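Risk register update: the risk of archive-format incompatibility is retired. Evidence:
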Amino acid sequence: MALEMDKLGRTPGDEAFRREDVKGTRWEATYAGALSFMRRKYTRDLAGVDIAVTGVPFDQAVTHRPGTRLGPAGIRHASAENAWGPIYPWGFDPFDTLAVVDYGDCFFDWGRKEAFPDTLEQHASAIIATGTEMVTLGGDHFITYPLLKAHAKKHGPLALVHFDAHRDIEPDGGGRIDHGTMFGYAVREGLIDPHKSVQIGIRTSFLGETGMGFRIIFADEVHDKPAQELADIIAKKVGKTKAYLTFDIDCLDPSAAPGTGTPIPGGLTYHQAASIIRKLTNINFVAMDMVEVSPPFDHAELTSLAASALIGEYLCLKAWQKGARATPMKD
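Archived output:
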């Protein structure tokens, strides 16, 4: 691939810091240079920005293996592998249509765990107040709770499209910072409408859990049905309600995503998950997060690579909704 000069006569490299615009892609070596998500510009200037990618390196709510505090760095590192042009099978580069930046990480005091939820909620509120949408890199799954608080303030009760091995509605006495209970809180507080929400890939159950109105698509159902049928079930449930997409990487089978805190056999393949997301084109998503990537338990970056690629699928979905279409391949 030729190293083309930019309009200022520069060769490519370290685009995370050197790029001037927030659209388009300029190739640079996947194995070198400053790392941001998909080589997007590192900035907190959100003027004209469609989506801000931000990291939340928090894993103090886990029930099993820690390590997801390293998830944002792992996902950014793996994303360089695919930061060079059109994404298959969409046939276009989403960054030609969407202005996307890397906003950096949410800073919090690890010694003040009790202050973390408010800190993240304020971090998210500052971003979405500008009209910019969010893609958040976790971190354990508890981070979705303060993110939902911030988004519900702006949009009202949201539909939750939730990919996971676990439902995360375990009953408790209230007030816990726990990655297994927070969606029960979110329902009770009116942050999400369970009657418009779907949980996909579930293959665990806990004593005391109830349906709460969610449509549950168990992993076996995913394995038995084509992606279009599953996407139709999700779209029918969500309807016109604004939706939040949260993807716990343990929704994927451990063979595809070993680097996570609570791996459960029997999960989805990357292809199954991506195929469903690609077909959700008529859902009005306002945000996405990718959580529970734990690089210390990963092998050959399999999990981080899957996570970064699934975010790429979401960005293509958003670009498609904004009018992006494949460029016909030349003979």
